Amino acid sequence: MANTKNDIVLSLVKAGKTYAGVPAIKEIDFDLYRGEIHALVGENGAGKSTLCKAIVGAIVLTSGKIMVEEKVRLFQVPKDALKLGLAMVYQETSLVPTMTVAQNIQLGKEKFHTSLKKLNINMQQLIQSLHFEVDPKMLVSSLGSAQKQMVEITRAVYYDAKVIIFDEPTASLTPEEKQHLFNLISSLKKKGVSIIFISHALEEALEIADRITVLRDGQHVITANTNELSKDLLVKHMVGRELQQGYKLRTKNQTVNRRKILSVENVIKGKMVKNMSFSVYAGEITAIAGLVGSGRTEIAHIIAGVEQRNFVRGGDIYLEGNPVHYYVPKQAINDGIVYVTEDRKLNGFFETMGIEDNIHVGWLSTRLGRRFFLSQKERKGIGENWKDRLKIKGLNRNDKVNKLSGGNQQKVVVAKSLIQKPKLVIFDEPTRGVDVGAIEEIHRIIRSLADEDIGVLVISSYLPEILKISDRILVARQGRIVEEFSPEDATEEKIMFAAIH
Q: Is residue 339 within 8 Å of 329, Cβ to Cβ?
């Protein structure tokens, strides 16, 4: 890129932020050019979100300065940054669920008097200009994750932002929606808008970015043009070492003495699950791939007692050959089935409780855990044991879970589930929003469960993950299992073809 100093729209100089004496970012220098797509990558806890929240005024730097078009700026609240055209599309949306789409887009930039009819018409035109399909009259609480993200993006465009930060924008999107987002980002770039793109999917950063900056442990490691980097080189910069590649998918002969632990036969739930049938075997990792809306998560919810199949002719589920029908998750847990949710922040943990307390909650849900009295020493011992086993790390010993990185939050959810000593574990999007180092650790945890003769069912939208860890790959489409592959025969192209056609 032939950019000059005059092209710099945003700069951070020696930026630092400290929490309770612990630095989250340390003396980071960062430049963003006009009309540039600049990817920001690093492991969870590397400082990416802290840096970007400072840019948009969500937090105030402890040291250093922010410069917008060569002028030093001090942001106390996000509105200060928005006035200068700096906006952020958060991974966990910042929308007001009880307001409509149109009201959320206009929020913070309301006129003294605007008729609701005129507002809806104006917002409909703006949404359509971005080729999104969202009704401006709908309440945000009724939208899916992808639609909420569309609203966030529309709001940034409505504010006429000159800098837009995307924090994990593709985590909840289908491949088609992802491609549409990339097209939109490219069109914004052509209009002179500068983009900061945060993603754990390094392939995406390499595909879309002009330059990439790597952070590690709150410090700047490298900034380089994308054509000078590769995925392996980025990983090495991010973790400070080369990750071990290609660990064995299978450690024993899966075709001998297979023990069927779960059988799903012709299960039906409304329009989402239609005659779904498949089996899971002990000691194997069975994966279900498919697009959003294919019935993958719904069948997991039915198996785990989170949702109910149709009352009449709803099909059958067998656990170790015995028919089961769970009305609440507690019944499934008692029989040895645990479900690791796809949305950890909504359903996975108590965010204002500590690590040990969250793990202890998992223990309390078991028969052994239902004791009238458990000493603090025993509770602490249980928590410490699982923290060590899964390498759960926080800045401080008593950190609340909402202060942890995404990877460590996910490991808390996994620990809370595994403490229940399951026969079958269902992982729904096990590495969503998790960095490359933590992904490898979680994959090894999943593999170790299968090696312990536990049945493992993995639901994932990330095809490289499916191909790497699975012993059997099932493809769901429109509420049915339509194809099965062995990992040796499967490719991303074959899986996507089966999921779409």
A: yes
